[in-house]
């Protein structure tokens, strides 16, 4: 919902061509692209700088996304520090099955924790490119999105005053629970999918137990290992949706990980202190369109893809590249072609990634649902990956994000 400011305390509105709501990867990337083009913008964020720079989230970045960051001068630290994954490993039927996607495609994944990327982007946007940003703002509101004079207002955390910012466009990059997504409630078509499962997301103070991503497809539920650094490892365990993390003490977690990731010839898991435990209910949504008047949504504000295929961060950055470029073109040359096609072009990739996530979910979880038919078809899919070069190549392209050109 948008509204007209009522008796704002701000004596005179500030003005920026673009207001970006949200200082996550998408919002900061949009801001960096605009500043590189010489366009002024303001980024508004409800969290503190320390909070957004320290929030652990995704870590797998596709090579096309890294190249997009590199072309925009945003990948310096990533290229120096990120780990490069060239293979993953499936464990099922008590056996290990290495999947060398680099050997099939010449491409690889980059592993760079999201908080490192956000830290890089904040520094580049605010400290290097001189972008305006307000951290810790409260009660953000959107106004006049359907007209030619939109604005955004917020309560300043220091003065307690409501400030009004006039703009030409608003970039909604504030996530699934943000104000920009709420602003289009009732106007957008929202497609949802619930997988009916949960994942217990864990961070362990322990080195990875293998030098690659592990996917354990077990009758008792999926388990995964995602290396993050030499000292910290991300693990996942399939669990009931809505489960309480307190139901998973240290001993139970490691016993289940050992069992579900166990395979002939596998090294024992390296245990460590669990520094994060939270339950993620696996679900997706897609908001159509992604444009409403002068508001353009990006990242989780527009779509959520469950972490099953590690696509969420990558989709957010693809959106940000497209939106930043289109806004700069419109504001600098008057050409609105990119903005007019923004929603449609992004949604094609979104649906492609959603379909792959759904397919991969059945591969991971089909054997654990108690349905012998699903278990049989999931096992057939797994076996086909290691017996059919065509199936292996198709999987590798989708897994690496190189299958489709948009």
TrEMBL record:
This is 4-hydroxybenzoate 3-monooxygenase. It comes from the Bacteria. Pfam families: FAD_binding_3 (PF01494). GO terms for molecular function: 4-hydroxybenzoate 3-monooxygenase activity. Its EC number is 1.14.13.2. Residues 16-356 form the FAD-binding domain. It comes from Streptomyces lusitanus. Keywords: FAD, Flavoprotein, Oxidoreductase. InterPro entries: FAD-bd, FAD/NAD-bd_sf, RIFMO-like.
């Amino acid at each position: 919902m948008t509204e007209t400011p009522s008796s704002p305390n701000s004596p005179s509105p500030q003005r920026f061509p673009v207001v970006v709501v949200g200082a996550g990867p998408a919002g900061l990337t949009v801001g960096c692209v605009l500043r590189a083009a010489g366009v002024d913008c303001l980024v508004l964020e409800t969290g503190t700088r320390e909070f957004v720079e320290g929030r652990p989230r995704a870590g797998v970045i596709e090579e096309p996304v890294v190249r997009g960051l590199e072309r925009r001068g945003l990948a310096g630290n990533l290229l120096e520090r990120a780990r490069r994954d060239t293979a993953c490993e499936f464990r099922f039927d008590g056996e290990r099955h290495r999947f060398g996607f680099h050997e099939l495609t010449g491409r690889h994944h980059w592993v760079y924790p999201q908080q490192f990327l956000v830290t890089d982007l904040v520094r580049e946007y605010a400290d290097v490119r001189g972008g305006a940003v307000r951290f810790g703002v409260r009660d953000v509101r959107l106004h006049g999105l359907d007209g030619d004079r939109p604005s955004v207002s917020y309560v300043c955390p220091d003065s307690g005053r409501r400030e009004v910012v006039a703009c030409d466009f608003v970039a909604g990059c504030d996530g699934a629970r943000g104000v920009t997504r709420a602003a289009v409630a009732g106007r957008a078509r929202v497609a949802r999918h619930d997988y009916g499962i949960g994942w217990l997301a864990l961070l362990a103070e322990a080195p990875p137990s293998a030098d690659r991503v592990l996917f354990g497809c077990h009758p008792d539920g999926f388990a995964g290992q995602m290396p993050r650094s030499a000292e910290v490892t991300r693990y996942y365990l399939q669990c009931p949706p809505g489960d309480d993390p307190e139901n998973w003490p240290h001993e139970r977690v490691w016993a289940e990980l050992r069992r579900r990731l166990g395979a002939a010839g596998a090294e024992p898991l390296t245990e460590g202190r669990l520094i994060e435990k939270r339950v993620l209910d696996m679900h997706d949504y897609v908001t159509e369109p992604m444009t409403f008047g002068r508001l353009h949504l990006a990242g989780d504000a527009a779509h959520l893809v469950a972490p099953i295929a590690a696509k969420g961060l990558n989709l957010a950055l693809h959106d940000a590249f497209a939106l930043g470029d289109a806004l700069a073109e419109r504001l600098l040359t008057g050409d609105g072609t990119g903005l007019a096609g923004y929603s449609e072009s992004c949604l094609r990739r979104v649906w492609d990634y959603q379909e792959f996530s759904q397919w991969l979910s059945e591969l991971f979880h089909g054997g654990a649902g108690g349905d012998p038919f699903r278990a049989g078809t999931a096992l057939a899919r797994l076996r086909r990956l290691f017996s059919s070069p065509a199936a292996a190549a198709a999987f590798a392209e989708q897994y690496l994000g190189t299958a489709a050109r948009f």
